[in-house]
Amino acid sequence: MASNYNRKSASSGSRKARGAAPSGRVRSSAPASRASGRGSGRTPARSSSRSSQPGTYRAMPGGRYPAASTRPQQRLTSVRVGDLDRAERSARAQGTYRRHVVRIVVVLVLVAALAIGAAVAYNSNLFAVENVTVSGVEHLTTDDMTAMANVPANTTLLRVDAAGIRERLLKNAWVADAEVKRIFPNTLELAVTERTIAAVVAVPTEDAKSVKRWAIASDHMWLMPIPDQDSEAGKRTSPKVYEDAAAVLSITDVPYGTSAEIGAYCTDSNVNNALDIVSSMTTDLSGRVTKVSATDAEGTTLTLDNNVEIAFGKAENIRDKERVVLKIMEDNPTVVYINVRVVDRPTWRAL
């Protein structure tokens, strides 16, 4: 009996010792855990596992507990791979956008600086025109071209009216085309393409008592009346005009009433027919024509350098007519007259 009593007392005292915590000490949360364990019907965990959880403290020998740790605990977060890709793309896009903005700003600054510099140079006397040169002229003189260009004395290469100068040059019958070139720092070049003399036409005067020789171009433009070379006007005329006039064909027997005007296109059908015949020839025959009688289109007659006369007629079937003429001349060395007005029925006369 005594032994049983002692065991009960010891166990009761042991339970009391466990139930009451010493004064001034932190109460362990183990009973609460066991209580919750009993309420949920679960078996309470061992003390070793409880002490490893956050917020619990394992009792040290002697009933003491360690001081609470002051180190902040890290919180774990989760990030999706797609979110990282979007963030990276957004960062790259923002960087690209900033670079583009910087480039645009730099370009705008440069453009503004160039515009300001150009405006200052345009309104200043920089690149003043000091020399005017002329190229491509043979029938016109440099003085004539400079006078026609009429370049203002106080202009510069930046302010010069190139279009106006070109327009003034094109008013001259000899000028087929013109280009105004700026050669920095102070030279203006007038590059001219001249018309050439295709024929010299003997145009009857108003009183029909004589004829006046006119130079005409291949595009049917009247170039100039050719003055006598020993006259005052002839001395002012380029020697090239007389050189070409002597080398080209002569159109004669032009009907009375044919008019010629410098810079105007010929309207006489007889003269135009003669020009079309000669300009359309493709064989050696074209270089041998020295004179054309243009009384009328049907009666147009060519004279060769060997004095053979060719009744050519209208400017039709020109290649076929050339072929027939050359064949007749080859077969008949003494021929003096050939009629090819009707190309499939030619006639000729020989000595």
Summarize the structure.
With 351 residues, the chain is an alpha/beta fold. Helices cover 38% and strands 19% of the residues.
General description of the model:
This protein is α/β, with parallel strands linked by helices. 38% of the residues lie in helices and 19% in strands. It has ten helices and twelve strands. Strands 6-5-4-7-8-9-10-11-12 form a nine-stranded mixed beta sheet, with helices on both faces.
Helix and strand layout, with pairings?
Blueprint: H1 2-19, H2 30-40, H3 47-51, H4 81-122, E1 131-135, H5 142-149, H6 162-170, E2 175-183, E3 187-194, E4 197-204, E5 211-217, E6 222-225, H7 232-235, H8 239-247, E7 249-252, H9 269-280, E8 289-293, E9 301-304, E10 309-311, H10 318-331, E11 335-339, E12 347-350
Uncertain regions spanning at least 5 consecutive residues:
1-55
> From the alpha-carbon coordinates, what is the Rg to the nearest angstrom?
57 Å
| Proportion of residues in β-strands | 15-25%
The overall pLDDT average reads 81
The third-level CATH topology of the largest domain is Rossmann fold
